[in-house]
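Case study.
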Amino acid sequence: MHKPETKTAGFGWLIGFALLAILLIVLPHLLSFSQQEILVMLVIDVLLVCSYRLLTLTGEWSLAHAVIMGVGAYASALAAKELAVPVPLAMLVGASVSAFLAFLLSFPLFRMKGFYFLIGSFAAGEVIRLMWKWSDLTFLFGGPKGIKRIPSMPDLFGIDFFEPVNYYYLCLIVVAVSLLILYRVERSRIGLTFHAIHWQDKLAESVGVNTFRYRMLAFVISAFFAGLAGALYAHYVGAVAPNRFDVEEMVYILIWAIVGGTATFYGPIIGVVTLTIINEVILRALGVDEMRPMLYGALLIVSILFLPDGLESLVPKTKAWLASRKERRENMRTEEVPAE
Amino acid sequence: MTKLSKGGMDRRQFLSTTAAAALLASVSMPKIAFGAEKTVKIGFLAPLTGEVAAWGKPGLDGCHIWADWINADGGVKVGDEMLKVEFVPYDDEYDPSKARAGAVKLIKEEDVKFIMMLGGDPWPGASQVAEREEMLVSTLLPSDLTPDTEMLLAPCEVHPIYNVTGVEWLAENKPDLKTAVICAQDDALGKPSVATYLAAFEAAGIEVLDEPIFFDPATTDFAPIMSKMLALKPDIICLDTCYADYVHPLTEQAFQQGYKGQMISCTADFYQKMVEKTSKEFMEGFIFQFPDFDDPKLNEPHVNFKKPNDFYQEYLKRYGAGEWSAVSWEYASIMDLWADAATKAGTTEPTDVLAAMKEGGVGKHAFGEADWWGEKLFGINNALVGLWPVVAIQDGKAKIQDFKSIPDWWDQHSDLLIKHMKALGQMYYQRT
Amino acid sequence: MTAELFLQTVVNATYAASYMALIAVGFVLIFGVMGVINFAHGELYMAGAYTVVALYADMGFPFFLAVVVGLIFVGCLGLVMEVGLFRPLRDNPLGGLIASIGFLLILQTVAMMGFGVRMENVPPSTQDKIVFLDGAVLTYQRLYVILAAVGLLSALWIFLRKSKFGWSLRACAQDREAAVLQGISINQTARIAMFIGAGLAGVAGALTAPLVSPTPFMGHSVIVTAFIIIIVGGIGSLEGAVLVAILYGFVHTFVTTMYDGTLANIVGLLLMLAVLIVKPTGLFGAKERA
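After joint prediction, the assembly is written out as follows.
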């Protein structure tokens, strides 16, 4: 009785994923040109927010994530531009530099927890960002103007990656693989330990878990993928500047994660997709440019007040609702049968 | 799940498009009445929200006046047709990725024939799109120009080169002032401007005391900076190309800390408020580069900007007395140049318009006949320079003192400017 | 550094310390009592400045009337936040943070639509100034800020020491659950804390409006300063906030004068990091907690 049920469930998942894959492949061709551009950014943001969620599993909320994305972007841009490293390799360099920086930052930052970590990570991020801006380091980071004319992804097999659709597919593959890795990490023993640290860090410590090492591991992995997102961004847009990675950007990451919900893997993805569609497509189409921040703010408040567990909490509810409807229909049918 | 979200999106899109349609219909009713006429669309890709919006929004306002006037006259003559002009704005939020999406939308979806940008940070995002689509783009910041930006023009404000005119005029009229200090915010506007002022002061034989002071754009309290400058006891305080948010508190601080000497600045937006905050006596003789357009000197025959005095009055009438700023007229003046070139070319195709615009290496700049110039500084002759006004405050009102020629200065002192630009890393081959 | 520049810098620093203290104390009070990081604190400061823009600069009411209205108006904004946002999210500290970000965006946009994106100009209410021996200058306009900081913060201190409300405020700040067991109404205490905290930010904005040029985005830089002060001073410690505001005001002003402003910001942040690493409870936090 038990076995076939999981089998059908697995089968359902498979169909679901196949449909999703088809949708994602077809999607850019259904959109307008400028929406394709937004789509590329959206896929990059998905990676950004999912990498952020990994760190939140350990219970820590960082305010340095946007800057760490920037570290990947800067490192990748500099590697490709100044050291002539091939772009795909430079992206990995960028991601690794982010990860390494996270490793270094772990030592001071994970002496703190909770609110202190939040603020500490903010300070660390701001120091890095101010370094980019500082006039004494302009020769390296380009000062407040940042780095321009970053080499773009070279053509591969005659595919022109300047075209948003092609770059979208590239990002889609990179992000899909990254998400798979993030998912596997979460489901592995390491991921379970992250959860354990979140809910019972004293207990975890008492059974011999080195919580510092696991926190650091979460931070480093999360930074790696944030850096990768930054590198994907840098080589597409062709320019990075310190203000692109400021508090405001960080606030957006937080908002996506929280409005979407962080209890499930898909929560942040729902958050970033929904909010980007609302902000970039609907509010722009309404022609309310000046009012956009206010509507966004109102939306935030409404969602945090009435959907405190994020949009993801709607999924089981909808499922339950659909199931109950189905059940009712089936009940009706079974009731109808004898009537006939 | 996928189906559900897709269905949801469709409904949202439907709602948004119906709402947008309703909104558009209500807003643009009068235009639809003329619907049968042909129009040409012009893109306005600049920050309309956020902190940099002050450099975009007033320009769009000015363009609306320009469009209303030109359309009332029938439109722009292109070939045998009269084309009405319609501006399509896109808020780039001063972000390169949004500028890229905006450029794509304007070019591929709106079919605009020309895009006006503020330039700066967002430009690198839009540049590749513009290049591939062969779109003609204008910027207010010539520091965006490089040898390969063939379709990018700086046709109005060749910041900061015109700042030399103010210093030149000052040296001619107040020869006893011998020392200066400079401060600027540390950013894309401040740096090249400092190099220009350094060159201009050196050319005029004025000594700059100490290093220029760069401050963080996030600075809120300017008292320490002014204290530091006043401690050097200069004859001239130069505020470089500080934004109005900095010029005002700096000037006020100079006044409060007892400074009595000369001040010079690139801009002095809302200077009336500065007069209110300090005193008429203190502000007397304050030199800057941006005239009010009710200035009678703008009616001199060499000025190409159409009906400057009326434009100023109309602007104040529509948007309020306190809203006039340096960028209010600039985008509109670029449109004059474009309309002229489109008429000359007989088409709105960007490459043809560009060719017509640059024909003979000269162009009709807002303040007079000017040269397409810039090769030595930007690597390309896509900046239009000629005369530029020197403005000073007299009895609480900005008055044009003189129009000075930038090319004349350049012919004598180009080596100085290049030297200082190089020292601050502002030459086109140094800008990364 | 000449004696004259030194003296002027001391004057500048005193002013900087005063307005930082006004803002930081409100921020600390709100965090201490309610456990919420009020990200919109900078925008409350902005709202105070715009009250003066509207009432004093535009409509011509007396300056000090506008300042008082600014205090009350922004205090009421604080009440709205407490009742509408923070109370329903009492058990969700991150929720309070997000809600305050939403509120921040709304305030910014309202200011932008009501007054335009451009900076506002507020003429000084007086141009009188005190000239010290060596020529260092302190304008009355800046003196008001210093006086307000000293006056209001002393009043607050007495209020917290002497009144019953002050007692419950401190009790909530130290241990909320224990406070409830003592029969203290959390909601009422939170309302008072929010009103005072927001009102102090509003007064700071109102008084500095003629000194800075108000823009809808002026709150940005304020919040970072508030963060630094709250951490170095120790969370929940009002005395710590005041002392660190003074310390930070002086360090920042002197580094700006002698080197540059970006370096001053970096120094501030590094100071904060150092304190977080060495003594996360802040320089003055432990005493309060014991």
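Observations recorded in class. The CA atoms of residues 85 and 252 of chain A lie 31 Å apart. Residues 32-246 of chain A form one domain. We will return to this complex in the next lecture.
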